Structure prediction request, 274 residues.
Amino acid sequence: MKNSSTTSGPKKVTTKVIAAMKKEKNRIACLTAYDYITARLLDQAGVDLILVGDSLGMVFQGHETTIPVTMDEMIYHAKVVVRAVDRAMVIVDMPFMSYQANDEEGFRNAGRIMKETGAGGVKFEGGERIANLVRMTVRAGIPVIGHLGLTPQSIHQFGGFTPRGVTPAEAKQIFKDAVALEKAGAFSIVLEKIPASLAEKITKSIKIPTIGIGAGMHCDGQVLVVSDILGLNEDFHPRFIRRYARLAETIRQGVSAYVKDVKEEKFPNKKESY
Prediction:
């Protein structure tokens, strides 16, 4: 049996709950998860949205970008996470080239994720160019989150993980993209690594919630990669991450103590034996 969440509030987070959170100015807490144990702990701690991000390509698989991640891999990890969660809404990233070729392919792949994983919705990167796909997907009953600003699947086009929306022209386009996603039926939008002033303007101008990552304090919610906030990835130090634990050192200490006890024949003892 799964353990229930320790937080108060709705028993299950849905698109309706997320919409109400913006109206009530109740900030939305979102984190990534790729495995059962982590997802269960996040759910118990009161996280509202759990994103099975294609960031797993970098965090879990060790790639330099998110681009190598496949549909089958996303579905595998999403199944595991959904199995762990009682309260949070689980959203799954649509991986690179699962929707870029044409809208019909993207639509069918979104349906496959929902059908095979039991997730609560999917996330697409892009704005105006994917508005029709978002519209098709939403009409089929699949909740969609958009993703604007620094979109990792376009990292080679951008030339690096640099902030977006810093020029007037690019800021104008990101704003237009946000409006287009709202009109297409997306229930929320992730804003990544854009100026706080632009994120504030978008947040105040659209009715659906914005979820920021490196986009300042004015978004309706925040999302970070779980290994970053827990201090598991010690080599990654962008300014938008706050570390709430130092688990890398804790794990090293624990494992070192175990190795020492094994080498010195202190583990197992009589009480730990059958």
